[in-house]
Design brief:
By secondary structure, this protein is an alpha/beta fold. The protein is built from eleven helices and 14 strands. It has one domain: TIM Barrel (Alpha-Beta Barrel).
Length: 378
């Protein structure tokens, strides 16, 4: 199918604010304060299904310019954490539908993030207790799996056989179809944080010698084939792609991240996808081995990607505004601030103080630390 280039902002960069509207294709966002995908481990329905509690949580945050949901595995093999939602069964689609409806009823917009964790898993999550899979049989050193019985060392994964790769690509395509069935406004492909697509892309984890390994063109092939499969389901501009080019999370490395992720950004731009969602370099990345000269900020990708560029990574409202004013990005996704502040855009608009998040409730549990943070009075 032909791919149209995403529409760039109509507002002059010098006057763009966090509350300037933003068009992603034919979808208009009322502000540029986006909700980042945030794993919460609260899919308590039978078979990793969302419930009414999840609908309440997302509806509370419908004032975001765009909500990107927590990552949702596209098949059981893609799961790596307890109680993360799926998008591969009819029951999971039925569980997501009320979530989407609740967000739409509040006037919000919501994309589903499609996910496969690859090697960041454990036999406890795998069909028949099998080994997790990856691009190559390389273990994530020092990474623990959070299994239903407690933390366990992550084993060395099994390298996906060439004949298995089309099935993984098809799982993402089916996940995209199921997201459309559930009523989502679009989807985001999870290519970040050391999960399966990232494992294929970076040369620190990909030692394959077939058409999916070696050159950057080969290593990027898997993610680009998934992107093409997803945009065959959705219009290109209703598809986003998330990357973390500077991240060392989950024991990730690449010998030349600017070249690697620059190539991927350029090729995704050619596909005309709606947005590229990147994560900024952090002090933690530098402490864990990132060479500062190889860091890949949004400003580097800005020159290579013609669609909407979204950035994320510990932003305050003030720093986010500086990024928009400088033209480094078109929107900023906030993570932790949205956990504790369901009305984050309104708080920023009013200059109101933010609620303090409780990290002990970030993962797992029920209402506490999930739907009980107060909003400002009307």
């Amino acid at each position: 199918m032909s791919a149209a280039v995403s529409e760039r902002p109509t507002v002059s960069l010098s006057t763009t604010t966090l509350f300037s509207p933003l068009k992603i294709g034919d979808l208009t966002l009322p502000n540029r304060i986006l909700m980042a995908p945030l794993t919460r481990n609260r899919a308590h329905g039978d078979g990793f299904v969302q419930t009414a509690l999840n609908a309440t949580y997302y509806a509370q945050r419908a004032g975001a310019g765009l909500i990107v949901t927590e990552a949702s595995q596209v098949l059981q093999q893609g799961q790596g954490y307890p109680l993360t939602p799926g998008i591969y069964t009819d029951a999971q689609v039925d569980g997501w539908r009320p979530v989407v409806d609740a967000v739409h009823a509040k006037g919000g917009r919501i994309f589903l993030q499609l996910w496969h964790v690859g090697r960041i898993s454990h036999p406890a999550f795998q069909p028949n207790g099998a080994l997790p899979v990856s691009s190559s049989a390389i273990a994530a050193q020092g990474v623990m799996a959070f299994t239903p019985t407690g933390p366990q060392p992550i084993p060395t994964p099994r390298a996906l056989e060439l004949r298995e790769i089309p099935g993984i690509i098809d799982a993402f395509r089916r996940g995209a179809i199921n997201a459309k069935r559930a009523g989502f406004d679009g989807v985001e492909i999870h290519g970040a944080n050391g999960y399966l697509l990232d494992q294929f892309l970076r040369d620190g984890t990909n030692q394959r010698t077939d058409r999916y390994g070696g050159s950057v063109e080969n290593r990027a092939r898997f993610g680009l084939e998934i992107a093409r499969a997803v945009i065959d389901v959705w219009r290109p501009q209703r598809v986003g792609y998330r990357i973390s080019p500077s991240s060392t999370f989950n024991n990730m490395r690449d010998s030349n991240p600017r070249y690697t992720f620059g190539y991927l950004a350029t090729e995704l731009s050619k596909l005309g996808i709606g947005y590229l969602h990147t994560i900024e370099p952090t002090e933690a990345d530098l402490r864990h081995g990132l060479d500062a000269e190889h860091a890949v900020p949004a400003s580097y990708l800005r020159k290579l990607f013609d669609g909407i560029l979204i950035t994320n990574g510990g932003f305050t409202a003030e720093r986010a505004q500086e990024y928009l004013s400088a033209g480094h990005a078109d929107a900023v996704a906030f993570g932790v601030p949205f956990l504790a502040n369901p009305d984050l855009p309104e708080r920023i608009r009013r200059g109101a103080p933010l609620n303090v998040p409780d990290p002990s409730t970030f993962y797992g549990g029920t209402e506490k630390g999930y739907t009980d943070y107060p909003a400002l009075p009307a």
